[in-house]
Amino acid sequence: xxxxxxxxxxxxxxxxxxxxxxxxxxxxxxxxxxxxxxxxxxxxxxxxxxxxxxxxxxxxxxxxxxxxxxxxxxxxxxxxxxxxxxxxxxxxxxxxxxxxxxxxxxxxxxxxxxxxxxxxxxxxxxxxxxxxxxxxxxxxxxxxxxxxxxxxxxxxxxxxxxxxxxxxxxxxxxxxxxxxxxxxxxxxxxxxxxxxxxxxxxxxxxxxxxxxxxxxxxxxxxxxxxxxxxxxxxxxxxxxxxxxxxxxxxxxxxxxxxxxxxxxxxxxxxxxxxxxxxxxxxxxxxxxxxxxxxxxxxxxxxxxxxxxxxxxxxxxxxxxxxxxxxxxxxxxxxxxxxxxxxxxxxxxxxxxxxxxxxxxxxxxxxxxxxxxxxxxxxxxxxxxxxxxxxxxxxxxxxxxxxxxxxxxxxxxxxxxxxxxxxxxx
Amino acid sequence: xxxxxxxxxxxxxxxxxxxxxxxxxxxxxxxxxxxxxxxxxxxxxxxxxxxxxxxxxxxxxxxxxxxxxxxxxxxxxxxxxxxxxxxxxxxxxxxxxxxxxxxxxx
Lengths: 425, 106
Fold this sequence. Notes:
The structure holds two protein chains of two kinds. Chain A contains 20 helices and no strands. By secondary structure, chain A is mainly α. Chain A has a domain at 1-101. The mean pLDDT of chain A is 87. Chain B has a single domain (2-104), classed as Alpha-Beta Plaits. Chain B is built from two helices and six strands; from the N terminus they run E-H-H-E-E-E-E-E. In chain B, the strands form two sheets. Chain B has a four-stranded antiparallel β-sheet with strand order 2-5-1-6. Chain B has a two-stranded antiparallel ribbon with strand order 3-4. The A-B interface holds A 118, 120, 166-170, 172, 174 and B 1, 3, 87-90, 102, 104, 106.
C-alpha cells in the first residue's frame, strides 16, 4: 500500500510538526522528566509510522500519539528500579495520566519554554533546549546551527534536562510579579535562535530564523498583552521580510542601503507594523520594541525612498539608555554619522581600551572602516577593513569587505600617488 | 520536594557589623523562620558555629586524621541552613543576607 503508506507518513509528519511541543510540554509537566517525555513520543511516532498505514489514520492523531506515549512512560517507570517514595509518586502519576481527557488537552508549551529558560539553567543552553523540546530539532541540527559538535550539544542538552528534573524546576508561566524578568529570558532565547539563523541566510538546512519566528508566535498567542513579546515578533518579521534582498542572484552580500525594497516581503513587514503598533499602544517601552522601531524606519524607505536617520538616532539613543550595550553604541555611532558627519560617528564609537571585548568583534571594525573611509582617512580605513575581513566567517560578507577595501585603496592611490605603508595592507 | 537552603555569608563581616545591625539581621532571620513555619514548609533549621570551630575528618589508608577547619581562604562560609518542603524550585525563598544555595534533597 505505497499510497496510503505515504498518506499516513504525511499525516504523522504534520502532526509531529504541529503537536510535538504541545505533547512534550504536557507530558513533561506531569512527569518533570523532559527526556522521558521525548523518548516516549519518539516511540509513539515510530509506532504511528508503523501502524497507521495498516490500520488507517486515527480520527484524532494527536490523542492517539498521546495515549501511546503515556503508556510508554508508564511502562518505562514500572521497569525502572525505583525507591518506595518514587513508587508512590509513580502511582499518582499513572492515575493522573490515565484520567486525562485526551481530545482537548491544554497548550502548555509556554510553561515548557519558561522551564527551559529558567534562571537556574545555563544561559548558553536555554535557546538550544527550547528548540529541541518545543520544536523537536535534534542535537545534530542544533549543534550545527550553534557551531557545536552534535555529541557536545547532546551532552549539554541532556545535562540541562537532568537539572530540570532533579532541581524541581516548574513548568509554568510565572506570576505577574516576576513575569517580566522571566519573560525577558525566554525572549532572549528566542532571539538568540533567530540571530543564529539570520547570520546564515544561504544555508537552507538552517531554518532557525523561521523556527524562532514560530516560537515568537507561540509566545504572543499565549501572552497577547506583553508588549515586548509583540516587539520581538515584529523585529524578527521586519528582519525576515528583507531575507530575499540580502543576497543578489550571484549570491553576493547586499548591504541594507543597497537593497532593492521591491524584493522585501510585503505581508511580513505589514504584519510587523501592526504588531509594533499594538505593542506601542500598551505604553511600556522596551529593547525589542525599540529595535523593531528602528527596522520599521529602515523598511519605510520602500515608500519614501529615503531613510530617516534622525528618527533612527533617537531610537538608538533610547536603546542605549536601556541596554548600555557597546554593540548598540556602534550602531548609534553609524546613525550619528548619517545625521551629522563621519567624524562625529568616529568620535562616538566605543573606546577599545574600555571595551577590550570589541577587539575581536567584526561589526566594530567593519563600522569603523566604513566611517574612516567616508572621513577620507584611507590608511586607517585599510587597516580596519583588514581586521574586519580577518574576523568575518561568512564568505559572501568577506568578499564584500574585500571589495570595499580595494575601493578605498584605489581612492587613496588616485589622490596621493604615494605608496601605502606596508602595515596598512 | 525537599530542599536544603545553605546560607553562605562572610563570617567576619557579621562580626564587624555594629550591634544594632546584628540585631536587625537576627530579627530578619527570626521573621524569615517564622514565615517558613507559618507556611507549613519548614522541616528543620540551624545556625552553625563559625568555621574556626570546624574540623575536617578524613579516612585515608586505614587511618583517621582530623584537621583544622576547611576553606579558611574562601570569602563566604556556610553559616546555617533551612530544610524546607515545597512544590518546586520557584517556591524557594531568597536571602537578604549572604547567598542562599538551594540544593534539592535526593
